[in-house]
Amino acid sequence: MSVLQEISPSVRSIKPLQSTPIALRAEQIREELKQGVKKPFREVIDVAWGDAQGAGIKPLTFVRQVLAACLYPQLLDSNRLPTDVKQKARGLLSECHGGSMGSYTDLPGIPQVAREISEYIARRDGGDPPKTGNIFISPGSQWALQNILNLLVHGHGEVRSGVLTPIPCHVTTIESLHSLGGVSVPYYLSEEHGWELQMEELNRALEYAKQVCAPVALYVVNPGNPPGHVQSKKSIQDVIRFALEKRLFLLVDEVYQDCVYADNVEFVSYKKVLAEMGPPFSDTVELASFHSASKGFLGEAGLRGGYVELVNMDPDVIKYACTIFSKDTAPTPGQIALSVLANPPRLGDPSYPLYEMETQQMQTMIKANVRRVHEVLDSLPGISCQPVEGGAFAFPRVDLPPKALQKAKEMGMEPDTFYCLRLLEESGAFITPGCEYGQKEGTYHIRYTLLNDIMLMEVCAINHILINCRHF
Amino acid sequence: FLSYTIDEYLLDTNLSLSSLTASRRGLPQKKMSENGISRPKVLTLDTMNPTVKMVEYAVRGPIVQRAVELEKELSEGIEKPFTEVIKANIGDAQAMGQQPITFFRQVLALCSYPELLNLDNTFPEDAKNRARLILQSCGGSSLGAYSPSQGIDYVRQDVANYIERRDGGVPCDPDNIYLTTGASDGITTILKLLVCGQGIDRTGVMISIPQYPLYSAALAELGAVQINYFLNEDNCWSMDIQELQRAVNEARQHCHPRALCIINPGNPTGQVQSRDCIEDVIRFAAKERLFLMADEVYQDNVYAEGCKFHSFKKVLFEMGPEYSETVELASFHSTSKCYMGECGFRGGYMEVINMDDDVKSQLTKLVSVRLCSPVPGQALMDLVVNPPQPGEPSYNCFIKERTATLSALAEKAKLTEKILNTVPGIRCNPVQGAMYSFPCITIPDKAIKEALEKGQQPDMFYCMTMLEETGICLVPGSGFGQKRINEGFVVMTILPPIDKLTILLNKVKEFHQRFTKQYS
Hints:
The structure holds two protein chains of two kinds. Helix content of chain A is 44%, strand content 12%. Chain A is of the alpha/beta class. Chain A folds into two domains: 3-56 and 356-471, Aspartate Aminotransferase, domain 1 (Alpha-Beta Complex); 105-337, Type I PLP-dependent aspartate aminotransferase-like (Major domain) (Aspartate Aminotransferase, domain 2, 3-Layer(aba) Sandwich). The radius of gyration of chain A is 23 Å and the shape is globular. In chain B, the strands form four sheets. Chain B has a seven-stranded mixed sheet, with helices on both faces. In chain B, strands 11, 12, 13, 15 and 16 form a five-stranded antiparallel sheet that branches. In chain B, strands 1-2 form a two-stranded antiparallel sheet. By secondary structure, chain B is an alpha/beta fold. Chain B has helices at residues 6-12, 22-25, 50-53, 62-75, 102-112, 125-137, 153-166, 182-194, 213-222, 241-251, 275-288, 312-318, 321-324, 357-368, 375-385, 395-420, 445-453, 458-470, 498-518; strands spanning 30-32, 38-40, 86-87, 177-181, 203-209, 225-230, 256-263, 291-295, 329-334, 347-353, 426-427, 436-437, 440-442, 472-473, 475-476, 487-493. Chain B is 42% helix and 13% strand. Chain B has three domains: 6-52, no CATH class; 58-97 and 404-518, Aspartate Aminotransferase, domain 1; 150-385, Aspartate Aminotransferase, domain 2 (3-Layer(aba) Sandwich), CATH 3.40.640.10. The interface between A and B is large, with 105 and 111 residues.
């Protein structure tokens, strides 16, 4: 018998992230196809994850040129690379210890990167650039989020800390919270109102939370994942007031801030709204805002670059944050990606035309996909989709006939899981069911990514099959 | 030492979590707003997760902070008795001028910007082929895609092959390999898995003193019980089974010992454990039913005559099925040390042996919360475990660079031991491996008195004074758990280039003589 039979209950409580029944079946089908098994399709159409480069979208040239030059500085002597690439690479390397990407970096990271992030925030929000001591760079935003949760959450003992989390919500943060022994208390976004966050519901959730845990923070995702809602300024103000009044730490996941598509919608950061609200909010409400190089135009998920900006955090606590973050410095390639995120080529730079063209291409593709989603889905009975204003996914609602519900029950699975499995088996389309993100009882959803240039044609194919699927 | 668990502490002090809310305790951590209404912060030292408060990470602690301040002052033109700050405290080889391996950087550059594959004369063919193979194994043929959370299959396969070759054919299942964000991520993950229970059943983890502060920091953060076992200074810092037995027996009275951590070659002591010693440790772990954690990141850094690196896995398997089929082991490796020195990429792996299937699935779940480890680091690990072979275009250059780096380290290890041992009041054990020397310094009574008056440990006071006077930043031994009156330990890396190291060592010598005289 194993020494490790006793596992920390917090670890046990984590739901598996990547090995869901659908993901496993998709993997199996890939294997079967490789071995020549005949199917009604040639390949698995993976539109499940928000992984742009995994889906075949090319990285931005500028990022990769800078990265290559930093990795192998001999390239700086050749005339293969544009001058602004070389300048940026030289600048970054000059601030690395020993002039090499191979060294550890201090908190908060390569100094130039920290400065660039600070200046980026100032350009985005107006006002003074934040102190680099309030910015922590980490291997991805989720890593930073877990570190902040670690500061907040009491995971043992009779009363555990709780965090209010949206329903629906991507799984990683919630499981991260569970792994620390924290409690997630859901608040339901309102589908009928475009997945809006409603204050009444937040209040209800908080009252419930007080009975089961010691609520300490509120987690908001803006723009949303999976729903593609972009929060209005008024809504953000309401949330900030709520946080002050109810004494909650605000954790704001803004990794999709560069992904806004609807014409009359704009992303505005929590920090900006907070600053504009003035005292007592602006100097009291504690806020952690997260961003990442994994999403948006960069899509450099594999490089693991993210950061958190802390606002109004107690300076004594920041000292401990330093200790926690210093154990897990961000990998240097990820820091380079962040440097481009924060300080991309500008008009007049040699790399600007190409950079602009590549980002425009992505923007056009995604906007086209969003249009297609609404055109196609709005014409199909039994499927409806709230306006996708931003983010990386479509999250339509599917009405399942009683026969399907019955069949799913017999098979011991959630109806939307059953639906997605059928879709996978018949068309090769790999999407994920709403039950993985949480949804109102009795409703069913599916999620698929917009970050895919095969989407344009395949959305039509998928949805054609969706209709057929309905005749279980 | 942590003599009882965090939960016992909380019970003792009658703190219930709900009462920790600052506002209810009327604590002074209040922020006054303009109209004079007090608004206490949600997150203060009192409301913070208590286990975080126990965390001290000495490698980046107060002395390093002071070193950074001094660097800033120097750059602002403030005059000091030195012209540069030398951070001889952290095992960062490239920061100290060690050159990266050309082949590795070429392949990584090609992987990052595959257009370079089309250039004719800039890169050798084998570098290009490797880049193509690695890219093929990545989602969307890009380093920027997420990888499976356990790591890229192709890389795990190569890691498994490396381990088999290294261990003379002992089989390695790629399914037991996890690619991690540096070795420290793997170590922390296994500890997260292990630590549970309340009160007397709280998990205890045995760590060597002197130790690398990552372990004590991780244990504190997890609220685990740290069980110290002392390495034998008189026998070149070897492990001593009697001492292990003493430590575990004592620990059983107040916690549930479940794991034993070993660093081999050692950090900061540099000892390379003998094969016999490793066998004894394995027998001990089997008898006491402990999970073995073998941190082997310095496995290529072995310098001393008669010393050889033996992997715990190899020894385990050679001890026959009684042990090889029962003892649970996790071994850790990384791209940060050895001859690579690629700390910034955060590449690493762990191999888990004899882990229960149910436990393994919990581990897999835990790892998936991290999404995946940095893909450039995974690519780099692939190159480390599968370097250029004889006959390949890059082989000669690779071997030359690797040999030069490792022999320079060996030379520096010897030089360090030699010079430090010429100083009265300093004695230094041979640096058998790894990247540090761990000399013992005699601290005069007067200095100890002044230290305590300042509220500092004597060896911290010694190091702070050395920093202010010479710009040399060392880590005091108290950060590593060793405590003794009149004697302290300091950790100094052997990494600076040899001429700089010689100057450094002589400055340390001069400082020590001055310090001793000043406080006599």
